[in-house]
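Saturday, quiet lab. Running sequence design on the structure tokens for the scaffold JK sent over.
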């Protein structure tokens, strides 16, 4: 039996495939090695390795391009609907969870790491491409896939193709962000900045005052804004973040429960178990089974 792993790292498919040949890229439509993961047809791969309702954390960055159907995801706490001609860029250490997907959902995807700063996006980015942008995106994907499928891939070429594609996506993202800045309300901005802060500090900082101070508002005002924008309280968002992180560690690592509790910054395993059962209806041990 393959050893459980904590993250969706580059060797995940190899570990879970239990020795099956992975390099037949033409027939299987995916490739994975120590440098890159790429798939041109993620439907079958996702059904084999990923379940709805289970969060996954990725070590490297990912670009995912929806080629048919739709998928509903929770990405770093925020729910998103992705349809055909949608592109999402996930930064390293992102957590995502599949909520639902259409029967015809499919996508292309590839990993990236250690790219220059000018191609970098500080948080997950979702784009809906127009016809011209979509055609260009597919051309980039085909070029990257062609190089990946070579008997001896040239990884410097792959990296430069990825850089070009991500730079193109960043220009689109910057343009759309500029438009959003002009139309978004102050409350919308506070809410999204709050979610980014929770993803960054949620395991260490549980006090509302910390987030209010970061956002330069009073705790009462922040609480009212978050409740109005999402229907959830600040503590509910913090609890959701903690549970998401805990689920990843419980399901995809062999850490004992006491060590998971320690990583989640609980005073002892008993407090962690009570919290986990209150939020999920299961004890950590029951969830792990």
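Result came back. Writing it out in full:
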């Amino acid at each position: 039996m393959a050893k459980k792993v904590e993250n969706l790292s580059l060797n995940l498919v190899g570990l879970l495939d239990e020795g099956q040949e992975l390099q037949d890229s033409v027939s299987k439509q995916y490739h994975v090695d120590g440098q890159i993961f790429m798939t041109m047809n993620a439907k079958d791969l996702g059904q084999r390795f990923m379940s709805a309702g289970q969060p996954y954390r990725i070590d490297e960055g990912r670009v995912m391009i929806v080629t048919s159907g739709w998928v509903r995801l929770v990405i770093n706490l925020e729910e998103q609907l992705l349809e055909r001609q949608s592109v999402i860029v996930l930064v390293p250490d992102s957590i995502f969870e599949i909520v639902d997907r259409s029967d015809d959902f499919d996508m292309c995807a590839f990993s990236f790491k250690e790219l220059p700063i000018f191609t970098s996006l500080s948080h997950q980015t979702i784009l809906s491409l127009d016809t011209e942008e979509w055609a260009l995106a597919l051309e980039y994907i085909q070029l990257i896939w062609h190089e990946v499928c070579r008997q001896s891939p040239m990884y410097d070429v792959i990296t430069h193709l990825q850089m070009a594609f991500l730079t193109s996506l960043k220009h689109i993202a910057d343009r759309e962000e500029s438009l959003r800045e002009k139309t978004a309300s102050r409350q919308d901005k506070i809410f999204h900045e709050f979610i980014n802060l929770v993803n960054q500090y949620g395991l260490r900082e549980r006090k509302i005052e910390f987030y209010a101070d970061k956002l330069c508002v009073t705790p009462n005002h922040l609480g009212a804004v978050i409740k109005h924008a999402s229907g959830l309280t600040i503590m509910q968002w913090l609890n959701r973040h903690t549970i998401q992180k805990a689920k990843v560690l419980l399901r995809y690592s062999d850490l004992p429960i006491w060590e998971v509790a320690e990583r989640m910054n609980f005073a002892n395993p008993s407090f962690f178990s009570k919290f986990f059962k209150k939020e999920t209806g299961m004890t950590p041990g029951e969830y792990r089974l």
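Notes for JK: The beta strands are 30-32, 37-39, 55-57, 61-68, 70-75, 78-83, 86-90, 95-101, 106-112, 125-128. The CA atoms of residues 213 and 249 lie 30 Å apart. Ask whether to fix the surface positions before the next round.
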